[in-house]
Please model this.
Amino acid sequence: MKTTRQNFEQFKLDSLKSAKRVVIKVGSAVLTTPRGLDLRVISRLIDDISLVHDQGKEVVLVSSGAVAAGCKVMSSCKLKPELTYKQATSAIGQSRLMHLYDEGFARFSKVTAQVLLTRDDLRDRERFLNARNTFLKLLEWRVIPVVNENDTVAVQELKFGDNDQLAALILNLVEADLFINLTSAQGVFDKNPQLYPEARKIDYIEDITSLDLNSLCEGSSAEGTGGMYSKLLAAKRAAQIGVPTVILPGKERFILEKLFQGQNVGTWVLPEEKKISRRKFWLAYNLDPEGKVIVDKGAGLALQKGKSLLPVGIKEVEGEFGKGALLSILSEDGEIIGVGLSNYSSADIAKMLGCKSSELKDLLDESFVYPEVIHADNLLLKAYF
Model:
């Protein structure tokens, strides 16, 4: 059903009222000035978040700003693109940033906890669940976790990219109900307002998958690694698991208070009607494919209908991998159909190409075999990521 203005207003009020667990992400462009951390903005932000927390809501804060803060402290050391420079400045800035949050929230008798993550912490299922349990215990204790990427130890290949994408993964990790992304912009505009004075702010985006993100995202923030494209991409991922996003001007006074009063601020991105499971979200966005299987047309059509991938439909396997590896599933034309967890190693799949499931026991000389190479429960189609 197409969303009308009236429907949207009711949805907005219902979402704000019912949201129990909120992830708030604040970017470097909000937290910093050319002279360093913007202490007034940080103080106001703490006031605002405390008001939300006082409503009984659980809050996870994903905060950028460590690298920018470190650069200003080491003003004689110009930041270079090499990873080691970012790691060193992050180590300097993170402690200063966390000190401000600790002292600021203590004014309202609130406790904070620093949580630094790398992508490796979320891609391993056991570590993912351990992290989740830690977050849930902190929230149960009414603690406000302050999350950032652990830049000091992260290697380039295992970085999240930016904190917008980290926040989207945290949404799934803690099973949040609402995502608030504080940025330097007033919201999302139909055109770049820096280039087109007539640009209008969009109050809500109903179907983000149909939106041309590039047309709205010329240019990027002066600080940090993300721009509006990154924020919309994170909102798209949130929408896929049924979580609404609000993109707000983070430097505006009392912006969170205005939001929860139901005022028309920022831009809402509405959730998808057909959402994916949180486990499939984890598959799509936390893991990297270790190999590929090329399937025939019949298998591709079956997958589109929600079926499992059987060996009879596999034409070719690429790469070396073990059981449980994430695989890309491609058509014979080379188009990506989806990704999924393999029940078999690459060596075993090579033996069973085009075979029926009933032949696998004899073929592999095993007493127990899976009838499918990738079960439908462990498979996500390209249309969803």
